[in-house]
Structures are given as structure tokens and as C-alpha cells.
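Data card: per-record layout.
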Amino acid sequence: MPSLAERRGALRRLAVAAAGATSSIVGWGGMSGCSPGQQPGLRLTVAAYPQIDAVVKAAVPAWQAQNPGVVVDVVSRQYADHHTAMTTALSTAVGLPDLMALESSYVGRFSSGYGLQDLAGGPYAGLGLRERFVPFAFDQALNARGELVALPTDIGPGTMLLRQDILDRAGVAPESLAASWDAYVRAGFQIRKATGAKLLSNAQGLKDILIRSGLKPGQGLYFGPDSEVLVESDRFRRAFELAREVRSAGLDAKVGAWSNEWAEGFKRAQVATDLTGAWMVGQLAQWVAPSTAGLWRASQLPESTYVSYGGTSYAIPRRSEPARKELAWSLMQHLTLDPQLQLQAFRDVDAFPALVQTLQAPFFDEPLPFLDGQPARRLWREAAQRISAIPTHKQNNFADEVVGTELDNVLERGKLIPRALADAAQVLRRRALR
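The structure for this 434-residue chain is written out next.
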């Protein structure tokens, strides 16, 4: 199974077929009217990945009008290649852009090091912007040292998507699936008996949500504040037990996310629900299963669970060219604080805005044709405001892989859950000491 971070980025990897890095220069020749301290002919490099690169390019003209003579070079790589390149650049200080887009899990991975500029104080005073963003998105850019290493631009509030036609055939009310996780599984039995459809694509997806359920603000996911390992806790046991129940009962399709079989399951009414980010509606409508328009509905996740499925932030490398940091900070604020730009990105690429000022826009009340006119953005707005920030740990991504592997051992090989979690904990304790 791919890691959660990989699946978060998959929509962007699959949305653009071109491989490798491409460079697009956005700039104009006007030299008059430069702001104090700026010089004509300055160039900024922004590193991004597909869809985010388009958002940056669309935002540059308005910013350049206030910064004449500055050329912006947008360097785009595929999602995985981009983050590999940024990892290398931050560790070597070679090839650093002036501004970089980062998927939220990478913000966490990089925040414990010293590669990203602290925006909390000094000339940036970024902490003063806290109230302008949904709380969890801003707080996840704060590290244990109190440094603000990024500003969020978009988020992925979690949602449950349901095939109304399958539920109707099974005699299952949509609200019954959301009542509790146990009710969700019971509905799966009824759906399978009446229609033959599976409840969801893969039981692994339950683990990704349930281990995040019930977390208090400031509570770690895999590690506590002193790097103590948390994977033998009740929330992990419950996640593994529910996933095992679903797999044992034949309620999941046992297909990997983003595979051809996964997409066919949606097209052919073989899967009744998807537990995912709000952005999935756009992906279903545009390329995964456009023929199913009008058959889907959205709800909150079972038990009113509020979790995030990815998101994007912008960061400034600490060792980038000092003479250009003021301009990079100016462009970062333009990309993250302009409500019209945020809403346009939401319309264009389903980039749900992190900016609080946008959340009362009429756009949130508009019906979604793919969901048969349901104004589902209201649900996602509620979720966005209720998600808790999860403190980052430098080994979170590694822990995600270890725990996912142990769940596979339970689902595929019959490994006992206490043994699987104990083995995962042992590996993570050794890793946490590094």
C-alpha cells in the first residue's frame, strides 16, 4: 500500500502527464515605479508541482504590478520529483529556490530541521497572521521551537462520498453510515448482501482515519512530546480491529488507491463509499468517473470525525539569497492572503482555501452538479474549522509506512494485532532515537 503522503499527492501526479521539470518565466519589462529597496531586473524562482504551479502563474501578474521589473521563474516538477529536489536543495543549499511549495506532510518533515526560514518574528512577524487561517493549518507550520516555517494556502478537509444509487438499492439511509464506525460497517453488510457492491476500496483507508480520530489539540499521532511511541494505544488497536473486521467480512475491494482497478470500481458501481479529501469530487467529475455525475452525495466522516487529507503551504529556504527574501515574503503573502486568488484556485483546481476570510463567500453555498446539486462545500467548511492540528515529528512519514506494513501483515497474513503493534512500536522506538 502507498503511504498516506503518497496518496495525498496522487491527484496531482495523475492530473498532469508530463514528466520532469519545466520552467515558465513570468515577467515584464517595465522598469519604472520600483518599490524602495528593489532593483529592476531581479528574478525570483518559485518551485512547485502540478496544479500549484498553475495557481502561482495565475497569481503573478497582480503581484508584479506592485513590483515592476521583477521576473518570476516558476520551476515545476512532478509531485515526488519536486519534493525529492527540495529535500536535496535544503540539505545541500545547492539549487535553492526563493520560494517553494510543500505538501503538508513535507512541512512537518522539514520543520524539525533548520532548512526553512523562521517567519515568526524578525522582519516577517508571521505569528500576527495566525487568525487569518483555519487554526489547524497554521498551527501545523509551527515547530517545537516555536518557529513558523511556512504559510498554508490550501487544505483537504476529509469527507465521506456515497453512491446514492447503491444505497437506494440496498435500502440504506445515507445518514446511517455516518452515525458511527460500527454503523458504517453494519451498513456494509447490508450493501454487499443487497447489491454485491463493496463498502470501500481498501480497509487500509480506515486505519488512516481512525488513528487520527479523537486526537486532542497538541496530541501527537505516532510520537509524544518526548518521542515516546504511541502506536500501542487504544486508537491504533481500534483502527486495526475495524480494518480486520472489514477485510474478514469481504467488505473491501482490496485494491490500491489510484490504480486502474480502483477507478473501475467507481465507474462500475462496485464500491459504495470513499473516505477521502473534499478535492476528490473534482477528480471523480473530471477524470476518474465522470459518467457517475449525479449519483454521489457527501457527508461528514462517521462519528463526526474531522481529519485532513493533505494541503499545500509555501516556505522560504533559510539559506536562499538574502537579497531576495523580502520579495519572496511579499509574493508568499500575495499567494496566501488574497481572498480572490484563493477562491479562484478553489474554482480552478479544487484547492480548498486555508484563508478564513474566504469561508463565507457565496461560492460555498453553490450547488455541486456532480453531487446532484448538494451544497457540500458547507460540510467541508465545517470540517475545516474543526480539524485539530497534529504536532509534527521528523519520523512521522516513516511511522506511517511501518504501521501500514504491520496492518498489511494483519490483513493478509493473519498476524495478531497486539503482536503487530508491538513490533511496530519496537521499530519506531529505535528510529525515534536517531
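Known properties of this structure: Residues 396-413 form the longest helix (18 residues). The mean pLDDT is 90.

See the next section for split statistics.
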